[in-house]
């Protein structure tokens, strides 16, 4: 199921819903989606895409007038906590792996929006996967 809308500047915006037959496992999620800054020595292009298009903020105490702020909190729930493993919560939504440098991550930044690596490499844009 999908729906295509046009944003204010006339650019298309798609909402796509995909059903899985079986419950997706965390290791399958990690093979498709990343919420970490890529290693620039491994893939400089992907590093540039993520750091240009996929960092949320600044908001919170750094910018309390940010559009995402309401009642002193980010409405998008940033910054996200670091976690070593991807898990799915009770309602099926994933909590993506976001490792800190001590555990193999690339950055102390906790405001990375989850991203699909293959799509971002082709389109050089912000893509939000939920």
Automatic annotation (TrEMBL):
This is Helitron helicase-like domain-containing protein. It comes from Eumeta variegata. The lineage of its organism: Eukaryota, Metazoa, Ecdysozoa, Arthropoda, Hexapoda.
């Amino acid at each position: 199921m999908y729906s295509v809308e046009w944003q204010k500047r006339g650019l298309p915006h798609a909402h796509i819903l995909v059903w899985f037959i079986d419950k997706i496992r965390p290791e399958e999620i990690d093979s498709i989606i990343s919420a970490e800054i890529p290693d620039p020595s491994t893939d400089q292009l992907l590093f540039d895409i993520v750091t240009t298009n996929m960092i949320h903020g600044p908001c919170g105490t750094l910018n309390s007038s940010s559009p995402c702020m309401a009642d002193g909190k980010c409405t998008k729930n940033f910054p996200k906590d670091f976690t070593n493993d991807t898990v799915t919560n009770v309602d099926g939504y994933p909590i993506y792996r976001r490792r800190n440098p001590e555990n193999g991550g690339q950055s102390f930044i906790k405001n990375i929006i989850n991203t699909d690596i293959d799509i971002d490499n082709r389109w050089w844009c912000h893509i939000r996967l939920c």
